[in-house]
Each structure stands twice: as C-alpha cells, then as structure tokens.
Write a structure and sequence with these properties.
The protein has 180 residues and is α+β, with helices and mostly antiparallel strands. The protein contains two helices and six strands. The strands form two sheets. Strands 2, 3, 4 and 6 form a four-stranded antiparallel beta sheet that branches. The chain has a two-stranded antiparallel sheet with strand order 1-5. The termini are far apart. The mean pLDDT is 83. The structure holds benzylamine. Benzylamine (ABN) binds at residues 83-84, 127, 155-159, 168, 171.
Length: 180
C-alpha cells in the first residue's frame, strides 16, 4: 500500500463508492423483479373478473327458434281473412262458439294456404252472437277479401245481424273445402 495520505484517502472514497454502487444495483434489481412479479400476479388474478362481451356465446348456445303460430295468434294461417275477435281467446275454440253464444246464420269465406302442406283451403268464418262482445284477440287479416258489394267474401260486417241476439261476440274459422 502507498504511504501517500492523499492516495489512501482516494482509495477509501473509491471503495466506498464501489460498495454503494453494488448495493444499489442489487436493490434496484430485486425491487424491479418483485414489482414485475407482483404485477403479473395481480393482473392474472383480476383478468377473469373483467367484463367480457359474451353475447356471441349466448346466441350460439340458444339458437333462435321460429315459434309456430297457434289458434290464439292472429298470424295463424287459417285466419288469413278474419276481421274480428278470435273465439279461441273467448272461451270457445277454432271451430266452436263460446258457451252462451250461437253461430251466425250467414258467413263469409276466405281462401288460406296451410304452410304445412302448401294447399289452399276454403275457410268459413262464422261470427258467434251473444249478449256481449268478447274484446280479446282482435285480428284483421284481409287476404283475398273483397268490398261489401261482394258480401260473401267481405269480412267487415256484423254477420250476427240476422240472429237473436244480434250482438257480435267473436269469430270461428271452419274449413269447408280444399283446392286441387
Ligand atoms: N265479422 C266480424 C265483424 C263484426 C262486427 C263488425 C265488424 C266485423
């Protein structure tokens, strides 16, 4: 070792600076590693909690089913020329008047296609007559319906006018023929 006091002092400073630099490098390296690991852990745990748009999966899981029309739907095929209340919603059925009412003496007819067999059917629409009107399931379809001067194919008339009682209640749809 040199006997020069200045050189010895410089050596002390050198070693102190070197030791501080080593410690600092070790600390910074460890801290940044810990910090990265922490971020990974927290991020990994929180990821499944994020709100993802899963609507595509929902649609895939439950494909839209085309609902078949029934005798309480205005779109049911037999009602293609019916203007009035459905007896199926009024205590009657597709072909029978509700209790306490009676079928009109005169009717109008329509021709409706059954989607199941593709055939055209002649449908007789009979108004059911009673003391009150039903008020449920009002439908108004007019396939091949004609103005009032062609009475037999006109649906916008109270066909109970010839009955007693003459109050219109609802309408039934009876198949009377098939085309072809
Ligand atoms: N044919 C059904 C109806 C009854 C009363 C008024 C209009 C239509």
């Amino acid at each position: 070792m040199s006997g020069d006091p200045l050189a010895r002092l410089m050596g002390v400073f050198d070693r102190a600076a070197e030791s501080a630099a080593r410690k600092s490098a070790q600390m910074i390296g460890r801290r940044s590693l810990l910090s990265s690991l922490g971020k990974l852990l927290v991020g990994g745990a929180a990821l499944p909690m994020l709100p993802f748009d899963r609507s595509a999966h929902a649609q895939g899981a439950a494909p839209a089913v085309a609902t078949e029309k029934t005798d309480t739907d205005c779109e049911y095929w037999r009602y293609c020329a019916l203007d009035g209340f459905l007896c199926s919603c009024c205590g009657g059925s597709l072909t029978s008047c509700p209790p306490g009412t009676e079928a009109s003496a005169v009717t109008w007819v329509g021709t409706c296609q059954n989607p199941k067999d593709g055939k055209d059917y002649m449908v007789s629409y009979n108004d059911c007559c009673g003391k009150t009107t039903c008020g449920r399931c009002l439908c108004n379809s007019n396939v091949r319906e004609r103005p009032g001067y062609l009475l037999g194919v006109h649906n916008d008339i109270n066909w109970c006018m010839a009955n007693t009682p003459s109050m219109y209640h609802c309408t039934v749809s009876v198949i009377v023929g098939v085309a072809g």
